[in-house]
Structures are given as C-alpha cells and as structure tokens.
Design a protein that fits this description.
10 helices; Rossmann fold
C-alpha cells in the first residue's frame, strides 16, 4: 500500500472586523491562491481541504490540522499552504524582552507560530511536512516599515505611501498590531506560557514568501510568491528537489521579495531530496 498525502489550503481575503478593531484586512488574491494550490496538490495525489476567509478560524484550522495528524503515519505526506496577512505579537514569556511571535492572521484572531508548531508536532514521526506561507510574517516585521527605503517600496509597489502599501501587501498594519495586542495582551501571554511548556519543534520544511525586512505582495490573480511558484511548478513539469524548487522560485522573484527556505526540527534529508509535492 502506497503513502497517503493530505493537504490543507487556507486563504483569507478578509478578516472579521469585529475581532480586529474595525479592520477587515481586505486582500484580492488569497482565496485564489488557496484554490490553485489545492488543484496543484490534487493533481499530485493529495486529498485536500480548503478553508476560505470566514471558514479559516482558529477552531477550523486547528480541527483540520488535528484530523490530518490523526490519519497520517510514518512515510505519509502533509502539505499546508496559507495565503493572507502576517503579523507579530510580543513574546513576553521568552528570555529576550524584545522577542516576537510571528502570526497568521486568521479570521477571528492571530494564530501564533508556536500554535502552528504545536499542531505540526502532533504528526507521527516520519510524516513529510511541507509548509508554504504567502504572507508577511518576519521576526522583524514590527519595524519593517522603517527598514524599507522609499526607493525599495516604489520598486515593489509603485508607491512609497505607507498607507497605500498596507492595502497591497500582506503585512497586518503595524498600528493595528499594537492596538489589538494591547487589547488581547493577557490572553496571548497566557497562551504563550502554555505553548512554551509544550516543547519540541515540529520536523517540517517551510518556504515563506519573503525575508525579514521585506513585504509580500498581493496581486490581482495570485500573490506574487504563489503565482511565481505555480509558474516554476509548470503543472508538474518541474523535476528538481525541494532546494532546487526554492532556488528556481527565488530566481524569478524581484530583489525586493526573496522567498526564504527554513528547516524546522530535523526533517529527513531523503525528504528534502525528493521532488516537491511527492506523495
């Protein structure tokens, strides 16, 4: 009996303004990204779940991750794709007072990177986990608007106006991050303490849309990262391994947005040497 492949595709074109201090986080291409990645995964032999906008709540995402973890065994494959806003909250439980937790901006609240790690760590040893994040989610994202020069912003977005950029990039506006964190600080502090006690990093391969001091671009049809990935994949025509796939995407991206490859825990070298999306 062959390996099983399950996938989860999350795309949010808006968030619930009642939960985000009146901000609806409107984007154009994230639902398209999720659908297109689900089609790619299906063609590759995965059985997929798609969560769009108001379906992509913390409860919905967590339930889908746990259902996949309960089914998959050593040698099986799990693919997670996310398109939406990224944000950060201060991690005041860590040793470094300026530490930040990166977040996925789900429909009802921000989902901490440590929460995602906890769910991925539930998968059985030997499950091949591949995560693709088309969002701004860098550790230095709180300062990202000060790190980027007007020239760099014009090159990427055609404008250096910070307010306009927040409507065409996938960074949760910095002022909203601060306001919402202050409102929900006690909740996040308690959650961070609980997660800190949970332990080990998940074994996974992650490719993200940009570097720490960059912003991920939205688009009319796909996000820039997802659209480039789909072109490189070429409907299955790509034949290299995961590192070659990352390099090929990187070569096609502008210098203002350079996707990052990151290894969490200790994913097997045999997995890294496989063609992407192999079940």
């Amino acid at each position: 009996m062959g390996a099983t492949g399950l996938s989860l595709h999350i795309g949010l074109n808006t968030v619930d303004p009642d939960r985000y201090d009146g901000w609806d986080g409107r984007l154009l291409a994230c639902e398209n990204d999720a659908r297109d990645m689900a089609a790619l995964a299906s063609d590759a032999g995965y059985s997929g779940t798609v969560l769009l906008t108001d379906e992509a709540t913390v409860e919905g995402v967590t339930a889908a991750l746990r259902a996949a973890a309960a089914r998959l065994r050593d040698g099986d494959a799990f693919l997670l794709t996310y398109s939406g806003h990224g944000g950060q909250v201060p991690d005041e439980t860590a040793d470094e007072p300026d530490a930040l937790d990166e977040t996925l901006v789900l429909y009802d609240r921000q989902y901490l990177d440590d929460e995602l790690n906890r769910e991925l760590a539930r998968f059985a040893d030997g499950v091949r986990i591949f995560v693709l994040l088309d969002c701004c989610h860098s550790g230095s994202g709180i300062e990202v608007r000060d790190l980027l020069t007007p020239e760099a912003l014009r090159d990427q977005f055609g404008t250096a106006d910070r307010n306009e950029i927040e409507t065409v990039s996938r960074l949760m506006p910095v002022d909203r991050q601060g306001t919402i964190y202050q409102r929900d600080k006690d909740f996040f502090r308690e959650l961070q303490r609980e997660l800190r006690a949970d332990g080990r990093p998940a074994d996974a391969l992650l490719v993200s849309a940009c570097q720490d001091n960059q912003l991920a671009s939205d688009g009319q049809v796909n996000g820039l990262f997802t659209g480039t990935l789909l072109k490189v994949w070429d409907k299955g025509g790509f034949r290299g391994d995961h590192r070659a796939f990352h390099r090929a995407i990187l070569r096609r991206m502008p210098g203002s947005q350079s996707p990052n490859l990151y290894l969490s825990g200790r994913p097997a070298e045999s997995f890294l040497a496989q063609r992407p999306f192999t079940v």
